């Protein structure tokens, strides 16, 4: 029974990693941009939520709802003013620029909020749990997982049911021909990054409520996000969820065997998947 | 005043100059053909007009307004739509989604809607939910043409629409042309097939090495003159 519990906890943890990864997957899928600052942007969003919580004294979910449009605007501007300038045939400039952005975000947060670790308080929700059969599941992990599903369903609906999603896919296939159809790739990219930042804000909400954070933890979140995206197959959102679950389960199973192995076993699982399926579990058919 | 007027158009890719002062006019309702061998500059001309290659503003005018420096999305919004060489359907979009994308830049309603495009190419209605790139070459070409029509263009640029298609399929594709013209679009057809071009166009421009070497009405042009303009004058 303990193993079932371990695996279920791992699946729920996978929801958190899928949330970390969904924004990265979205941006990569549309514009082939690998955003090395993704983890730091999650941490930035966590501080924005924390700021709203402490200034307005409202609950973290409401605070996140206020932070979302702020982060959308930030993402839109970031893409419009900075990232659109470096997109092109060569993949190196965007890597360098987002690497630099990562350092800038970390240091701005350090200046603004010090190196003290912070937490977004969620009151009794932090320790609440429900018993399902023989298992006892935390409400917070369940909420995280449900949010991950909701985010991925939402993004899929956006992609496959709306004119904006159609434009996303067309630009992703062929930006030059898309522009011949009247689409402005630069503004489509800006909207995509804005939406990715809304997803980042949701990820930040759970990051901040579930654990302590400080300005330096971004890059480690980036690694988990990366691994989830690559295990799932580049550009596939459901694959990203599957990738998050693979890492989550590997971590909890590893920790159950030996607590020192938690982080390591997640990375090992990633390497094993890469060895067996180099293109990930659900690669896109065309690319 | 011509609907579309190209004046002294030059274009280069880095050090390589592809167009040397091309002049061309297209009147409302007219169909012109641009013929020439591979590398004559036909596709470069299309890329310049559609905005993929930027030029000096006044080199290309639409209804007198300079559009030479506009980006492609702005050119479409002005009413110039392109059927690109090689069809370039969007691989992750269904037939219908490919058509709907064509309406993205449309400002005003017009004759062309999903319904009228399906009337023009009935096979596309049957296949509307399958991926565009899974169709046969001729059907893909119909999608590419339909997609361009969805913006209700005043000028339709068709780049090598018969390329790689069987003769019987080419006939089907070209059969759509009269109705496209009736609906109000002036058409620029880029062709390597001289016979096809002479059959459908009101006027023909022949290009060689980045220059217009001959132009006129098909009935006024002798086979020998076209041959010389196409391949160069033999010594």
TrEMBL record, chain A:
Q: Name one GO molecular function term.
A: transmembrane transporter activity
Please name the CDD domains in this protein's record: TM_PBP1_LivH_like
Which Gene Ontology BP annotations are present? amino acid transport
Q: Which InterPro entries match?
A: ABC_transp_permease, BCAA_transport_permease
Keywords annotated in UniProt: Amino-acid transport, Cell membrane, Membrane, Transmembrane, Transmembrane helix, Transport
Q: Where are the transmembrane segments?
A: 6-29, 41-71, 91-110, 131-155, 188-209, 221-249, 261-277
Indicate how the chain sits in the lipid bilayer. Multi-pass membrane protein
Q: Where is it found, in Gene Ontology cellular component terms?
A: plasma membrane
Subcellular locations according to the entry: Cell membrane
Family according to the record:
Belongs to the binding-protein-dependent transport system permease family. LivHM subfamily.
**Which PANTHER family does this chain map to?**
AMINO ACID ABC TRANSPORTER PERMEASE PROTEIN, BRANCHED-CHAIN AMINO ACID TRANSPORT SYSTEM PERMEASE PROTEIN LIVH
Name the record gives this protein:
Amino acid/amide ABC transporter membrane protein 1, HAAT family
From TrEMBL, chain B:
Query: A Gene Ontology biological process annotation?
Result: L-amino acid transport
Establish whether keyword Nucleotide-binding is in the entry: yes
Q: Which terms in the Gene Ontology molecular function aspect does this entry carry?
A: ATP binding; ATP hydrolysis activity; branched-chain amino acid transmembrane transporter activity
Q: Which UniProt keywords apply?
A: Amino-acid transport, ATP-binding, Nucleotide-binding, Transport
Residue limits of the ABC transporter domain? 4-234
Pfam families from the UniProt entry: ABC_tran
Q: Which domain of life is it from?
A: Bacteria
SUPFAM superfamilies for the chain: P-loop containing nucleoside triphosphate hydrolases
| Keyword Transport part of the UniProt annotation | yes
Protein family (similarity comment): Belongs to the ABC transporter superfamily.
Q: What is this protein called?
A: Amino acid/amide ABC transporter ATP-binding protein 2, HAAT family
